Amino acid sequence: MIIISPETIEDYTNIFEVNKLAFGQENEAKLVESIRNLPNFNSALSLVAIDSDRLVGHILFSEIAIASPQGEVTALALAPLAVLPQFQNQGIGSQLVRAGLKQCQVLGYKIVIVLGHPNFYSRFGFVPAIDKGLRSPFSVPDEAFMVLELIPEALTGISGMVKYSSPFDLV
User: Fold this and answer.
1) Which of the following CATH numbers is that of domain 2-170: 3.40.630.30, 3.40.120.10, 3.40.50.720, 3.30.230.10?
2) Would you say residue 13 has pLDDT above 90?
3) What's the predicted TM-score (pTM) here?
């Protein structure tokens, strides 16, 4: 049985390892470490998946902004989502996404943005951000840059460029 819970300081080393192994490089693991150093970091938005006392997955949400003509609007970036290779394709990533989105709602967030596989993230209600008037600061396919309104109509009257925090510049 998988247990999903917020990260603790004791999890940091294992979170680094899970991200490194899941992505086959250290970029995402270093991204997590950099985001933790931001003043608005919220450890309640960094969740781990535990299987029999072993950390097997991790998801992180962090504050970003939408630069719209009406001013900056707070949103969350879902990045990264990592599961140890030998535990992938068992639903752990989906459990992390569902638990994470619920936590985002509990904490009062309204908008989540992800750059990822459309077939995976559309299952949770994500749609191409371009369809909602949002543009990516990265050169990526429109269908892979996605948004989810946690509160219906949260993006009504909002459009513009998504601005990621500085740690994302390194990825």
Assistant:
1) 3.40.630.30
2) yes
3) 0.96
